[in-house]
Amino acid sequence: MKTNLQLAVLLSTVIMLLGQHSSRLTEEFRVSLDNSKIKPVENEFILRKAVSVGGGAVPLVDSNTKKLRGISDFDANRLASNTALIINGLRLGYATDAASGKEAQKLYDESFTAAFRNARLKIKQDGIVYLDRPISELYNPHKENSTNRQDDYVNLEIPVVLVGNVDFDMEIEFPDGATPVAIKTEYFELALSVVECRRSNAA
Fold first, then answer.
1. Helix H or strand E segment including 50
2. Quick one: how far is CA 202 from the chain centroid?
3. How far apart are alpha carbons 171 and 78 in whole angstroms?
4. Which of 11, 80, 178, 185 is the most exposed, fewest CB within 10 Å of its CB?
């Protein structure tokens, strides 16, 4: 549990970061921000899904994404208007299985294939790209021997801020010629270390 001082520092940092994106916030959120009526909660957002490997962009979250325990913490690709998400770190995982529908049953500790290592992870909102990094830079190549899950996290020097009431995109962009693993379903895990921010006077 954080001390009062740590909570105060967290709130101050959150207000500073959100202030840099104030023009993107809803009017109600800006008013709450100006009055320091923001409640930050440290959290982890998980997304686990089967991915069809091929050249080009493959969406990870879209309007059909549902919030499902152990599989997805996202409900579609838009946050509520009273919410903002500050992404300060992430970890990636990969798994394969002969069967489909195994998203919640894998350990995601297998080595990435060349198709994934050479792909890029992108996060966009309102037509602006806020993260565009090679997957090879975002995962622990020794993941199968890791004993501490925190070692698998990559901290983002520039946090990604997603605001409410605006569609966002998370996608993997595979290079031309990328090929899937034969006869197996490939699963991808994206875990985001976030500060979830809500208007403290919101219903």
1. strand 38-50
2. 24
3. 15
4. 80
- What ranges do the domains of the chain cover? 4-199
At position 63, the amino acid (one-letter code) is S
Q: Following DSSP, what letter does each residue of 75-131 receive, concatenated?
A: STTBB-TTEEEEEEEEEEEEEEESSSS-TTT----SPPPHHHHT-EEEEEETTEEEE
* First vs last C-alpha separation in the chain: 25
Both tokens of 189, joined, read 């895990």
Q: Is the dihedral of CA 95, 96, 97, 102 positive or negative?
A: positive
Structure pTM? 0.89
Residue with tokens 């050249």: 55
User: Tens digit of pLDDT for each residue in 144-201?
Assistant: 566 666 667 899 999 999 999 999 999 999 999 999 999 999 999 999 999 999 987 6
Residue with tokens 């909570």: 7
Tokens of 192: 């985001």
Q: Which residue has the tokens 């320091």?
A: 36
Spell out the residues 6+ positions from residue 86 whose beta carbon is closer than 8 angstroms to its own.
14, 17, 18, 159, 160, 161, 194, 195, 197
Dist. CA 200–CA 203, nearest whole Å: 8
Q: What are the φ and ψ backbone dihedral angles of 125, each rounded to 5 degrees?
A: -150, 135
Query: Which one-letter DSSP state was computed for residue 166?
Result: S
Q: Cα–Cα distance between 134 and 158 in angstroms, integer?
A: 16
